[in-house]
Design brief:
2 domains, binds flavin-adenine dinucleotide, binds nicotinamide-adenine-dinucleotide
Length: 396
């Protein structure tokens, strides 16, 4: 019998943890494991709001894959997935290469959810990759430089953040922290800078604990963020945004942080999806395909009350670990274990040294939440790269 081929698409949280667990569990001759990723590095998506605002270098959120993966055991292919042909058991890459598989793992992450809102794809930025956040940071700095040459253009100093979910809140906090430094560097009067966080729902962080939400809003307001709650953005233009009530905000920088959907490649490849996500079974298999597994933001799983779990790194990691173990079992003819996430809580940063969190039933505010978030980051770094990576990357 020939060696089974396992093909993993995406080296994000889900795909990376699947790879690392397979690497640990299987011997060299038990399976041919291939990992395809756009870049030769893994990025820590949960930190991307920092380099986007410019409070941390983009490089800090990158981890070269050859530092964490045993390249003798895993065939790494740096390429972009173009399409999946599940009937033929093949994947086509941008290079034109076609890879075949016996088992497929889809971990291609998400795309921004634009809800079909006009102009977002053309004129708004999204915090979604290292390259995307480099562009946001450069653009923000360029707007300060441009303002100095066209001082009537206060829209260059106006920043709109669309959505007050966790991404919008974390980025707003980080941006507010960066503004004083930029004002000093470019000799700009800080009172001219505006950061609007615009949220369609009747509250920031809908569904989160109201006391923690109110703490977060208060901290960000004190840093200079103006919230427009219960206000939907209905259009993005080259000049800024148009709100549902018809009001226009002139802003040269719009960062869209109003949710995600599964990577469009999955839907385009013919899988049945809801908001781009495949409703997987208890073994993370795609309906109709016993050999296709989906992890992370491309997968849709439900809790006991029938409500979908939100797409988070926490769940992607757990799915990757469980799937790596299950695939090893499958290869050895052993039984697979059903997957159930064990949620540990939610932690969000509000800029340097500030945060909010809910761990079990315990609410965390300010420094204790920020420290807990650092501890959770450390745990993740240790998991993927041991003590060395944790020590190299941690920022206190
Ligand atoms: P990703 O981590 O996005 O990885 C996808 C991988 O696939 C990437 O390596 C990408 O390069 C690659 N890829 C994509 N398309 C292709 C292609 N066509 N070909 C080849 N490779 C491709 N969640 C939490 O639980 N806690 C947090 O604190 C938290 N903070 C966040 C902060 C921010 C600013 C953001 C934006 C998100 C945050 N999240 C957080 C959510 C979390 O980051 C995602 O749920 C998580 O990254 C999903 O993991 P994934 O493996 O599905 O995809
Ligand atoms: P989200 O879906 O959690 O929040 C998006 C927000 O945008 C919502 O509050 C929504 O009401 C609002 N919105 C939608 N359309 C709008 C419009 N037209 N105008 C104005 N507001 C609009 O999305 P997210 O914040 O990008 O998070 C994506 C996922 O990543 C979530 O599952 C989240 O939990 C996770 N995440 C977690 C953390 C953390 O744990 N620290 C940080 C970032 C993201």
């Amino acid at each position: 019998m020939s060696t089974p081929k396992i093909l993993i698409l995406g080296a994000g949280y889900g795909g990376l943890l699947t790879t690392l667990h397979l690497q640990k569990k299987l011997n060299y001759n038990e399976a041919e494991i291939t990992l395809v990723n756009k870049h030769n590095y893994h990025y820590i998506t949960t930190w991307l709001h920092e380099p986007a605002a410019g409070t941390a270098p983009a490089d800090h959120a990158r981890v070269p894959l050859d530092q964490i993966i045993d390249m003798n055991k895993i065939n790494f292919v740096k390429d972009t997935v173009q399409s999946i042909q599940p009937e033929e058991r093949t994947v086509t890459l941008d290079s034109g290469n076609v890879l075949s598989y016996d088992y497929l793992v889809i971990g291609l992450g998400s795309d921004p959810e634009t809800f079909g809102i006009e102009g977002l794809k053309e004129y708004a930025f999204s915090i979604r990759s290292i390259n995307a956040v480099r562009q946001i940071r450069e653009h923000i700095e360029y707007m300060f430089a441009k303002y100095k040459n066209e001082p009537h253009r206060t829209d260059y100093l106006t920043f709109v953040v669309g959505g007050a979910g966790f991404t919008g809140i974390e980025f707003s906090g980080e941006l507010a922290d960066r503004i004083p430094e930029l004002c000093q560097e470019f000799d700009v009067d800080p009172s001219l800078v505006k950061i609007y966080n615009i949220e369609a729902a009747p509250t920031a962080l809908p569904g989160f604990d109201p006391e923690l939400v109110s703490y977060a809003v208060d901290i960000l307001q004190k840093k200079g963020v103006e919230f427009m709650i219960g206000t939907a953005i209905k259009q993005c233009t080259p000049e800024g945004v148009v709100l549902a009530n018809g009001e226009e905000i002139k802003a040269a920088t719009v960062v869209w942080a109003a949710g995600v959907r599964g990577n469009s490649i999955v839907e385009k490849s013919g899988f049945e999806v809801m908001r781009g996500r495949v409703k997987v079974d208890e073994f993370l298999r795609a309906p109709g395909y016993d050999n296709v597994f989906v992890v992370g933001d491309c997968a849709l799983i439900f809790n006991d009350e029938g409500r979908p779990y939100p797409p988070t790194a926490q769940i992607a990691v757990q799915e990757g670990e469980a799937l790596g173990d299950n695939l090893a079992a499958l290869i050895r003819g052993e039984v697979m274990m059903p997957f159930k996430p064990a949620l540990q809580g939610s932690l969000a940063s509000l800029g340097k040294g500030e945060g909010i969190g809910m761990v079990g039933t315990k609410k965390l505010f300010g420094t204790s939440a920020a420290l807990m978030k650092k501890a959770s980051d450390l745990r993740y770094l240790y998991k993927i790269g041991g003590v060395g990576l944790a020590l190299k990357k941690v920022r206190l």
